[in-house]
Amino acid sequence: MSARSIRLISLLLLALGLVAPYVGLYPVFVMKLLCFALFACAFNLLLGFTGLLSFGHAAFFGGAAYVTGWFIKSLGWTPELGVLAGMVVAALLGVVFGGVAIRRQGIYFAMVTLALAQMVFFLCLQLPFTGGEDGLQGVPRGNLLGLLPLDSDIAMYYVVLAVFVAAYLAIQRIVTSPFGQVLKMIRENEPRAISLGYEVDRYKLMAFVLSAALSGLAGSLKTVVMGFATLSDVHWSMSGEVILMSLLGGVGTFFGPVLGASVVIALQNMLADKVGAWVTVIIGVIFVVCVLAFRRGVVGELVEWLDRRRPRKTTAPTARADHEAHSGETRADITA
Amino acid sequence: MEIFGIPHQAFLGQLMLGLVNGAFYAILSLGLAVIFGLLDIVNFAHGALYMLGAFAAWIALDSFGINYWLALIVAPLAVGVVGVLIERLLLKRLYGLDPLYGLLLTFGLSLIFEGVFRDRFGVSGQSYPVPELLSGATNLGFMILPNYRAWVVLASLVVCLGTWFIIERTRLGAYLRAGTENARLVQAFGVNVPLMVMLTYGAGAALAAFAGVLAAPIVQVTPLMGSNLIIVVFAVVVIGGMGSILGSVITGLGLGVIEGLTRVFYPEASNVVVFVIMAIVLMLRPAGLFGKEA
After folding, report:
1. Which fold has domain B2-128+138-284?
2. Full-model pTM
3. Interface-testing mutation among B272, B276, B289, B290, with chain A (most A C-beta atoms within 10 A)
């Protein structure tokens, strides 16, 4: 896709976001969607652009959700400070997780992060301030900066939209920066990155912490919007869901995770009261189908299709498309 | 009599419970290691297969009146067939890809199994009676040993050692180990590797189901019993390293005992102690206690 059409689509979507509450979309639903879309984008920063599959991102999302809820509800902090506290804790967790997990690679990395996240789950279950099985309920939205009351859904909505757009642009900036280029090199060919003198582990850790902090931002925001933080936010199934969102939309694309999150959240919203436990089954089936037939995700496949249809004028994108067409079924695929 | 200020009966009881849990960790991590060795897939569905085994035993008793001893054979066979089907229909398409896809596919599968059983049976547990022959307890003088728990530990050890014997000491096992090293070369020598891979996954599934049947009388049979266990087993695998069979058995039993002891001395930490040990081991020996890779 050309840069122009991407910019056009982005502007259209931004316009849709701006008018969403006035065209019949329920603001709370769209806010929830944006929180999870942000979570998926943050996750994708790690999987899509660094090539690390974390199976423990629920710990950052849910951990931050709890911290924010506790700071706002029990200590009476304003929402922006509560969110900031959540992000800081998520980033610190990221330092710990990352420091332990990047000692192993690939499949072990996934298992280690899963196990560490389970530890956070039990902490959230047992620590005195987390409300045990009930979680933290009735967190007030409060006043932004102590001035702007967020009780109205419309005010809250535009705050969430602004945060989402800022974070989305920040992720885009990170990926296209020289730092992001190094991350992509690590994804494509780690031994080469090492031989060129890059301290690969430090870059991985930095990407991990950034991803954790942004996931924390998503979780904190969710607490402020919905007014609660529960065990399902830190449960391993949440880590699985965020993987599915990225995979479904397109790992390693900017917009894929947003689309994937929208589909998954919309599905859950529509089906939850109709089919009960079958939601899990449907999610499982989508997982299986994605892995078997659809590894680039919706956006990934679309981009691939458009690239192939376009007459090949320039050399650089063509070479890339060729490379991807050939290596489509190889190791690089999950990260491409 | 007291040990470290704890009544020795409670102490030994928790130790025994730890050994029982450790036995399950050992069987499950063993199956994971065998499957990973040959298929290069970390089988997230292992917990679901364990749950299937327990439910197969429960359904067999509830609907068909098949007793425990028969279920101990029938349930693993049935789940083994499920495993064979999974390998033939799904996993086969992923060979040669990044192993992470195998993890994701089997994760999806475990969600499917869990969801179906949750819809059918809800989240509350079904209880499975302890077989008559093993009910009651034996007084050993220094402690009262529930017969069924002793049987679980014994049976698991026999199964683990049997698996070790097959893999390390028989011709079939030699093919298996050779296949782990270089599948294409083994195939060139005329061994039917795809068949071997299929049966390995089936056998791994059957092992998990066997553990499930063993567990049925002492834990609540619920759709979620597998996923709660599999994450601990993953940590066990990371601690032990997937390199050696006896290593995973020792690690499994050892961690079970440590968990049991933690329950005596500091109950709040018993859920997380395995994960803490994992983090420490990764700091000191990133390849795991028995791992070979750098």
Report:
1. ABC transporter involved in vitamin B12 uptake, BtuC (1.10.3470)
2. 0.86
3. B272
